[in-house]
Amino acid sequence: MIDQSTKLFDELATMVAGLSHYYIKESHIATKYEYNSRVLFSRYRLIDEPPSKILLKQHLNKEIEVAIPTPPNGYKQRVIFLFEGKESKEFLQILKSMLLYLNIKDTKLYKERSKNCVQVHIPLSTTNPNEAYNKAVELSSMLQRRVTKSWKVLPNPNIPQIKAIYPLPYKYIE
Fold this sequence. Notes:
Blueprint (H helix, E strand, L loop, with lengths): L3 H13 L5 E4 L5 E5 L2 E5 L1 E4 L5 H8 L5 E4 L8 E7 L3 H14 L6 E4 L5 E7 L5 H16 L7 E3 L10 E3 L3 E2 L2
Antiparallel strand pairs: 1-4, 1-5, 2-3, 5-10, 6-8, 6-9, 7-8, 7-11
Helix pairs in contact: 1-2
């Protein structure tokens, strides 16, 4: 039987497949950039090389925190909900019931490094990022009718690339 950490490592390897770059979280502001005449800051530093298996192991051992962009065009797309807050259990219950109602079954629930951060990955059959964005908007608007708190949903072409990233998860949520 495959243990949880091996299965998670394999899933992380699938998530980073095809990526030409990744981001490392720093303890200080690492990047300053302009977007729509505003100056924005980020703690994530761009590493312009494909992620390696050693990097994934360092991430799972909590030596570094790695973030990645959404899958590039030509790769299987997914909608990702990122929620941070004390009400993460309630958020997940509402999202699960909505997905069950929509007959979406193959979702994956993960925890980030922080206690109250959760990720919900919904795989799609498309390889087109625009179709993934349309599905993300549809699901997010449906969820907005039932949840008052805010969340981040990816893919989203309306936000700058440095903000359209998400940290790789650390463990499953059962």
